[in-house]
Amino acid sequence: MSNPPEKQREQLDMFLEMIQGPAIQVVIGTTTTDFSPSVYWLPKAILNVHSAFFRQQIPIANDNHIIIPDTTPGIFGLFLKFIYQGSYPTRKDNDAYYAGDKIPPSARAWILGDKLGAKSFMNHAIVHVYQSLGKIFFITPELIEWCMENTTATSQLRQLLVDTLIVHWSKNTKVVAKSDVLNEYWNRIFDVYTDLRKEFIFGLKGELRLGNMHSYFTFEKPGAAPEPEVQISTEKISPPPKSGSAVKAEE
């Protein structure tokens, strides 16, 4: 259902207010990264609305300048698309899959959102991840290893990926990449991450079920300022030709 005209006008007025006023320089990357740093001049108001990190850093920024060294311009670009347009396209994950990227951009976007304290952006990214599982990308040992290294035990992204691993491990759904070649990699993952192994075994015994999409959302703490609503993507996902071929590609 579309918003009534009054609501649309209110949203437009709010957006126009957010892109007015003073701007701050945001630098993505450093001279030590393997890409040239990207520099943006962004309205402080729109950053303050969408990010707890910017709300904290803008008032104390030296020379009106903030550096974010641990992300890439491409992933930060998804954040910019979200704060200016309300969403970013599903094809970003699809394009990354065909380009051979082992980690979906939406998973990296969730990590960025977590660092920025941008919960609406995190939830938008988790929508993409949830809708893409088994269609655009698959649960591989490499993805789980990356997840374990880049998320905390209470991370909603980790919970979604681990739940999916457990639920589909014994099913013939091709959502989890398994093969004789990958068995050694999986065994190493379970040996290194003992908490994952315990959760995996417990989940298999307990007949875990995958939660609905909203159960993996990250919510504001009571009393915190509300963030913009998350738009659920209705864009059609174009899966790879065959899920089996994706599993084979991981071998």
Which helices and strands appear, and what pairs or packs with what?
Layout: H1 5-18, E1 23-28, E2 38-43, H2 44-50, H3 52-57, E3 65-68, H4 73-85, H5 91-98, H6 105-116, H7 119-132, H8 141-150, H9 156-169, H10 180-192, H11 194-205, H12 243-249
Parallel strand pairs: 1-3
Antiparallel strand pairs: 1-2
Helix pairs in contact: 4-6, 6-7, 8-10, 9-11, 10-11
Report on this model:
The protein folds into 2 domains: 1-70, no CATH class; 88-249, no CATH class. The protein has helices at 5-18, 44-50, 52-57, 73-85, 91-98, 105-116, 119-132, 141-150, 156-169, 180-192, 194-205, 243-249; strands at 23-28, 38-43, 65-68. It has a 3-stranded mixed beta sheet. Helices cover 52% and strands 6% of the residues. 31% of the residues are buried. Residues 222-226, 229-234 and 241-251 have low confidence and may be disordered. The protein has 251 residues and is mainly alpha-helical. It has 12 helices and 3 strands. The protein is globular and about 55 Å long.
Features:
single chain; 251 residues; mainly alpha; 2 domains; 3-stranded mixed sheet; 12 helices; 52% helix; BTB/POZ_dom
Q: How many whole angstroms does the radius of gyration measure? A: 20 Å
Number of strands: 3
Secondary structural class? mainly alpha
The parts where pLDDT drops under 50 for at least 5 residues are 222-226, 229-234, 241-251
How would you characterize the largest beta sheet? 3 strands, mixed
Q: Give the % helix.
A: 40-55%
**Strand order, sheet with most strands:** 2-1-3
SSE order, as H and E?
HEEHHEHHHHHHHHH
Shape: globular
Q: Count helical runs.
A: 12
Please give the domain count: 2
What is the terminal separation in angstroms?
45 Å
Instruction: Let me know the average pLDDT.
Output: 86
In terms of DSSP E residues, the strand content is: 5-15%
Region (Disordered): 227-251
Pfam family, one: BTB
Domain BTB: 44-92
Organism: Melanomma pulvis-pyrius CBS 109.77
